[in-house]
Design a protein that fits this description.
This protein is mainly α. The protein contains eight helices and four strands, in the order H-H-H-E-E-E-H-H-H-H-E-H. The strands form two sheets. The chain has a two-stranded antiparallel ribbon with strand order 1-4. A two-stranded antiparallel sheet has the order 2-3. Helix 5 packs antiparallel against helix 7. About 20% of the residues are buried. The model has no long low-confidence stretch (mean pLDDT about 85).
Length: about 270
């Protein structure tokens, strides 16, 4: 079936194509992480539902390319590589500005730019562009053509409502994540200020700080120590929620909460061992 640029398609069809690409990307991420790393199901999506919007935007960006490229291979490869790389860089930059966190980081890869993009991913974008235009999109268009306009309209509207609800819930969770990280940081700073000069105090890292305070408070067993232990215990549910969030974004980095993220990653690694 003929592949058309998205600007020549009805809006609802463009939206459904975005959803299909986002779902396929989510499945790919879950299978990749589940098979090669976690060996169990981990929701790798930014949202709660089975979608990775970055794949949806990436797929649509390929379909924004001029139609004359669709019958080519090499020019399509390079155009897809450039477009996909731009989308990934801008997505990383916007998310960091909005939430002061970096959701993926390629600093460990050679030929990367600010850790936001790397040559390996750019080459993959080129390959994906060719695969999408020549092999996937024709089948997507054929699949959508099997349904009536009414069914497509109803499906797009229902999915749009569900996606909006998911976005609102996700934004709320992101706010809770930021609040929890801020409280964790303030708690650590308060402990440093209060006990930093004590011989028993270990200020090497946030995890060491909390552990040394717990040990000292358990040994002393006075009113102040009991209060400290209670505060530390109150943080446990928040820490579990933060760890759950970190599972989905293992390369997450933060401008404001470097030490706190390091502690969470250490806790996750210990549990995995």
């Amino acid at each position: 079936m003929q592949v058309l640029p998205v600007y020549q398609l009805p809006f609802r069809m463009t939206f459904l194509i975005f959803i299909i690409f986002s779902f396929v990307g989510w499945v790919s991420e879950v299978l990749y992480v589940g098979i090669f790393f976690e060996h169990k199901f981990v929701n790798r999506g930014f949202l709660h539902g089975p979608l990775c919007p970055i794949y949806g935007f990436g797929g649509l960006s390929i379909l924004l390319l001029p139609a004359f490229l669709y019958k080519t291979w090499i020019p399509l490869f390079f155009a897809s590589m450039i477009f996909g790389t731009i989308v990934e860089y801008l997505s990383s930059w916007i998310l960091e500005r909005l939430f002061h966190t970096r959701w993926w980081d390629y600093s460990r890869y050679k030929l990367n730019l600010h850790g936001r993009i790397c040559l390996l991913n750019s080459l993959l974008f080129g390959v994906l562009g060719v695969v999408i235009i020549h092999f996937i999109q024709p089948h997507v268009m054929y699949f959508l053509s099997l349904f009536s306009d009414f069914v497509l309209k109803l499906s797009a509207d229902v999915i749009a409502v569900a996606l909006t609800v998911d976005l609102l819930i996700t934004l709320r969770r992101l706010v809770d994540f930021s609040v929890s990280m801020a409280r964790l940081k303030a708690f650590g700073e308060n402990l440093r200020e209060r006990f930093g000069q004590e011989q028993w105090f270990n200020g090497e890292s946030l995890s060491k700080i909390i552990e040394s305070v717990k040990v000292h408070a358990a040994e002393k067993k006075d009113e102040i120590s009991t209060s400290l232990l209670k505060k530390i215990e109150q943080f446990q549910p928040r820490l579990k929620n933060l760890e759950s969030f970190m599972h989905r974004f293992p390369t997450l980095k933060s401008i404001n909460y470097k030490e706190e993220l390091k502690m969470l990653k250490e806790r996750i690694e210990e549990k995995l061992k």
